[in-house]
Amino acid sequence: MSIGKTIRVGIMPLERVRDYTLAIANGKYKRKLTEPKIWFTSIKSFAAVLSDENRELLRIIHDNKPESIADLEQMTGRKASNLSRTLHTMANYGLVRLEVGSQGRGRRAVKPVAVARSVNLTLDIGFGDKPEPSRPVRRRAEQIAA
Fold first, then answer.
1. What integer is the mean pLDDT of 31-48?
2. What is the total count of domains within the chain?
3. What is the distance between the alpha carbons of residues 57 and 95, in angstroms, rounded to a whole number?
4. Which domain holds residue 49?
5. CA distances from 71 to 75, 78, 112, 146 (A)
6. Cα(115)–Cα(58) distance, rounded to whole angstroms?
7. CATH number of the domain bearing residue 90
8. Parallel/antiparallel/unpaired status of strands 139-140 and 116-123
9. How far apart, in whole angstroms, are the C-alpha atoms of residue 73 and residue 81?
10. Is the pTM here over 0.85, yes or no?
11. Cα 50 from Cα 47, distance rounded (Å)
12. Nearest 10 degrees: Cα torsion 75, 80, 84, 85
């Protein structure tokens, strides 16, 4: 699979994420195609998942296409347990896909596959006003920097 997909993520306080999600689930709000599907509740959690070390891990997965976590362990020098935890977190955020790989150690190996080439970030400034379910408060990082 060619890696070229951009994943849209957002940062918004948990309470607002709940309101937003419930509004969508209850049919009170229809999510636009340009809005994030993946939400982080803080810049800190976003930074942890997409740290320099983890972005390097994604690059290694993309460039070297390891067949298993054991292969990735050899490529990176990171312990398999650490890689497994990191990869599962990244999979929850849609950054990697964990596929069934070749047979290994008496069971099927887990094959990590990089999913996206870039991440587009939407950041909720949170000036204290709660977004209406039909109109969530959103700001693009690029607009804030301008």
1. 91
2. 1
3. 11
4. 5-145
5. 6, 11, 10, 43
6. 9
7. 1.10.10.10
8. antiparallel
9. 9
10. no
11. 5
12. -110
